[in-house]
What does this fold into?
Amino acid sequence: MPVTERNVFAAMAPFRVEPRFVGRVWGWKDLHPWYDRTAKDEPIGEVWLTGDDCAVATGPHAGKTLGEIFAEMPRAMLGENAPSGDSPLLIKVILAREKLSVQVHPDDRLARKYGEPRGKTECWYVLAAEAGAQVAAGLKAGVTMDAVKAGIEGGTLEESLKMLPVHAGDMIYVDAGTVHAIWPGSVLLETQQNCDLTYRMYDYGRGRELHIEKSLEAARLKTKAGKVMAKVLEDRTVLVEGEYFCVERIPVEVSRSSTSLRREDESKAGLAYLFAAEGTGRLASAGFGTVELPARGIVAVPASSPVFAIQDTGGLDLIRITPRWPEKTE
Ligand SMILES: [Zn+2]
It folds into this structure.
């Protein structure tokens, strides 16, 4: 039999991904108690959990980057039904001490016009929030594009933003084209399409590059952005199910000691990421032994993973993130 990716990587065990701590002017100097990390010089604003440059931390592919894993083993990672082989989702923890820029991301169509494979729709799951914390998701009703332009020029764009108060456990959907801004006071788990395009409209005079023309091309006066009501099902809570991703909370009962995490229909199984919003867990299987899930860490579960159980090893609050692909419209 010829050696193909399919028969060599018939089964691929889940693996832990090493987070990357990314410097941002608006970030934190000391990440405790979220991460055991202190910034050396520039503050850290983003913890990239599934970036293309994040290193695989466990298993036979340890040391490779996540981007290399998708390039070498797209089907083992994503399954048979994925329309493309590259990494679909970028998951981050956002730690803001100051306001982020007011920004917008392009949709798929506009991103392709500028040579990128996809646009960026994202969502924010609130891990913690101080009293009074807010984010901006969209423009106020009645705001025109001329008002947006005038707001950029006059430094008054904030007045046009729709502010949302946030509390721990909230989910906010931010589709491409939504003018948005993250403000300090909350810690967010951000799930987004794996795309590099951010168009800054306004940045409080911090000297970073602005992309005013492109941001006006990408911005929409009305979008679907806003808070999403959680859907409580028997075996999980769906926090958001969008065109590009699904984010769910999976209860792991200590009394049962473990919960099996494969989907009902094995043939449709795709990639999943497991994130410990609180506490720690352990994946265990006859097929691969154990993989530890640290607090605020990520384990990637390839489409071809053997069946496994997950154990709560201390206060685990488990979030599962899975990619989706929109129906083809072209
Ligand atoms: Zn954004």
User: Anything to note?
Assistant: The chain has six helices and 21 strands. The longest strand covers residues 309-323. The pocket of zinc ion is lined by residues 103, 105, 122, 180, 198 (CB under 6 Å). The chain has two domains: 19-53+89-227, 231-323.
